């Protein structure tokens, strides 16, 4: 299957999308924060990112879901900063640390092509929501350099519909998180009380664009939606609500990863209710509900609670 963006590039539409996104940086509304600041002039809003993206690393990654990794690894590009402020962030040093070196459009394009030359199965943009314009700016350069791999939008789920529509026909695989269904929890832990509403509408739009996850004969994902939910202590209700939403309002064939590996990171230790790990009963209840609903539950590498305890050194 041909990567979606190649057709748009051939018609010139890919460059036009990049120009439209870059224009929005002058009164930035790329994400639901809608800070309205002029990032082209170096002003910083919630995401603490100006005109240029901050790419912290780019390498082959084997820790993603099996359909994204294949035998060659996923070509991940990690972006620093974030449009969320999750107190429990598992990548706190990247999302809240820095400052990190800035990357020009050419830098990003070269990073994508370098990953392709290493044998990456895809290009996996990690935490890309606040740098959608910079990615769209870099893509035509990357295509001219020979990029042909599918693109993954690996995001926190806090997306603007207008920005997602600029990505229609560009992104091949959407991989959002589905975090909280309670606005007050989203306010307390992510500073985003509108997260549940924004994430639901974003996931619907993502599915409209790319449909259910499609894999080739080798089991490698080539197009579609994959949703992640990190099971958190005492918040089984979020997991069950998201799973029902996916099955009933998106597609009963949605590919979902019920993730058991939460452990207190970032500032989670300051919140007693987040300072432990989810119980094996919570994890198994979430997985059982996914199976009951008929969702396509990721079965990656047997990450059982017992195995996780061993990995955590318990």
UniProtKB/TrEMBL annotation:
Q: Which residues bind [4Fe-4S] cluster?
A: 82, 86, 89
One Pfam family in the UniProt entry: Radical_SAM
Q: Does the keyword Iron apply?
A: yes
The reply on keyword Manganese is: no
| PANTHER family, A to Z | FORMATE LYASE ACTIVATING ENZYME, PUTATIVE (AFU_ORTHOLOGUE AFUA_2G15630)-RELATED
Q: What does the entry comment about cofactor binding?
A: Binds 1 [4Fe-4S] cluster. The cluster is coordinated with 3 cysteines and an exchangeable S-adenosyl-L-methionine.
| Cofactors named for this entry | [4Fe-4S] cluster
Organism lineage reads as: Bacteria, Pseudomonadati, Thermodesulfobacteriota, Desulfovibrionia, Desulfovibrionales
- Domain (Radical SAM core) spans 77-209
In which organism is this protein found?
Alkalidesulfovibrio alkalitolerans DSM 16529
User: Highest taxon of the source?
Assistant: Bacteria
Q: Write down what this protein is called.
A: Radical SAM domain-containing protein
InterPro entries with a match to the protein in the record: Aldolase_TIM, MJ0674-like, Pyrv-formate_lyase-activ_prd, rSAM, rSAM_sf
Q: What are the alphabetically sorted keywords of the record?
A: Iron, Iron-sulfur, Metal-binding, S-adenosyl-L-methionine
Q: Name one GO molecular function term.
A: metal ion binding
């Amino acid at each position: 299957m041909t990567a979606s963006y190649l057709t748009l590039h051939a018609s010139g539409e890919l460059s036009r999308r990049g120009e439209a996104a870059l224009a929005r940086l002058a009164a930035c509304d790329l994400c639901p924060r809608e800070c309205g600041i002029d990032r082209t002039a170096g002003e910083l809003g919630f995401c603490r990112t100006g005109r240029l993206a901050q790419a912290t690393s780019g390498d082959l990654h084997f820790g993603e879901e099996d359909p994204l990794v294949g035998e060659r690894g996923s070509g991940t590009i990690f972006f620093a900063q974030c449009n969320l402020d999750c107190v429990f962030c598992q990548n706190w040093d990247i999302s809240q640390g820095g400052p990190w070196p800035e990357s020009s459009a050419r830098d990003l394009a070269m990073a994508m092509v370098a990953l392709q030359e290493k044998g990456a199965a895809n290009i996996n943009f990690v935490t890309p929501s606040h740098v959608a314009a910079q990615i769209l700016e870099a893509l035509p350069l990357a295509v001219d350099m020979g990029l042909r791999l599918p693109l993954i939008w690996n995001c926190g789920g806090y997306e603007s519909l207008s920005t997602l529509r600029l990505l229609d026909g560009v992104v091949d695989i959407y991989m959002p998180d589905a975090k909280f269904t309670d606005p007050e929890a989203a306010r307390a832990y992510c500073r985003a009380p509108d997260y549940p509403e924004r994430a639901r509408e974003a996931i619907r739009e993502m599915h409209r664009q790319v449909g259910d996850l499609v894999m080739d004969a080798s089991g490698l994902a080539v197009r579609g939606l994959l949703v992640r939910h990190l099971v958190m202590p005492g918040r089984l209700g979020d997991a069950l609500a998201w799973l029902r939403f996916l099955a009933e309002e998106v597609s009963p064939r949605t590919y979902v990863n019920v993730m058991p590996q939460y452990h207190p990171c970032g500032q989670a230790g300051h919140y007693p209710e987040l300072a432990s790990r989810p119980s094996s009963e919570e994890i198994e209840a979430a997985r059982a509900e996914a199976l009951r609903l008929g969702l396509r539950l990721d079965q990656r590498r047997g990450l059982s609670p017992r195995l996780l305890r061993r990995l955590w050194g318990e």
